[in-house]
Amino acid sequence: MKTIKAVSYPVHFQEESYQELSQLIQEKDYSTLFVLVDENTMEHCYPKFIPNLKTDKTIEVIEIESGEINKNLETCVGVWNAITELGGDRKSLVITLGGGVITDMGGFVASCFKRGVDFVNIPTTLLSMVDASVGGKTGVDLGVLKNQIGLFANPQMVIVDNQYLTTVTEREIKSGIAEIIKYGVTYDVSLFENIKKNKENNISDLIFRSVEIKNEVVLKDPKEKDLRKILNFGHTLGHAIESFYLESEDKENLTHGEAIAIGMVCESYISNKELQFPIDKVHALKEVVCAIYDKIQLLEKDFTAILNLLKHDKKNVNGQVNFVLLNDFEDFKLDCKVPEVLIKESLQFYNS
């Protein structure tokens, strides 16, 4: 599988990627390699990774607790302290080995330590392979508010190796499929059709095309001024729903993909009401989502709390919530203002 060239770094695929990593380490002559993992990737992924790394450099492993709840500045301080105590300097390399939490936070940690050290992303979940590890976004949550603290910073390279998908649950695989659906309905409908026809078993092709799409979009709009906003379809409401479940003591947390899937259904309904997005395609998207994900009943008494969380969305300007909506598949409109009553109506539509 060929390498994808991003703005300033390559995305390598499968086993031959590690030769490129070893060569990078040799050429850059890093002082110490810090591998950031959580307890799951330490147990299941690190043993697959380390035999592929050919280097005589010192390797230090820093383990954090898994989960979105730990994607915060407090965890970052712990990692910065660990790197400092282990002798990290400006010639250190941080290797992130994990899902979206690890790649988002690890890139942020590296970019801030001593005003920036190099990092390499090795995503181990489908979600991080097709989305989180590519595109230069790093960051952490502020309380339950998603990705409020962060910066744009590019890795030295990204390694996408499907062998790590054998280490994750079916639920995590489904979480990543939501992002592939997003690429399908906004940019390349063939991806959506493949998921609709249960062709996600050809996962290598789906991953490659998803990375290719994200890279095409980011190359045209690296700082999300215009086109890159399409990658937020489903995320405006989806992030609010994800945050609501994260802060609710009496509800089980949703995965990122589960929340985004709900967001896409709701925002497709809003698209129909605001832009005449065809109703048959609204139902087609809802059918695919409901076939893949367990149905969540959104309680009407929670709607106001979910809408209040929308006020903190990163795309907001002057207090106005901005949605990405669809005129049709592969045809979108950016920065759409939506009445509250219609947002609540969309949540009811998902429930129906």
UniProtKB/TrEMBL annotation:
Keyword Nuclease attached: no
A matching Pfam family: DHQS_C
Domain of life of the source: Bacteria
Domain annotation 3-dehydroquinate synthase N-terminal: ranges: 62-174
Enzyme class, first EC level, given as a word: lyase
Cofactor(s) listed: Zn(2+); Co(2+); NAD(+)
GO biological-process terms attached to the record: aromatic amino acid family biosynthetic process; chorismate biosynthetic process
Gene Ontology cellular-component terms listed: cytoplasm
GO function terms (MF aspect): 3-dehydroquinate synthase activity; metal ion binding; nucleotide binding
Known EC number: 4.2.3.4
Keywords noted in UniProt: Cobalt, Lyase, Metal-binding, NAD, Nucleotide-binding, Zinc
Domain 3-dehydroquinate synthase C-terminal, first and last residues per copy: 176-316
Function: Catalyzes the conversion of 3-deoxy-D-arabino-heptulosonate 7-phosphate (DAHP) to dehydroquinate (DHQ).
Name of the featured protein: 3-dehydroquinate synthase
Source species taxonomy: Bacteria, Pseudomonadati, Bacteroidota, Flavobacteriia, Flavobacteriales
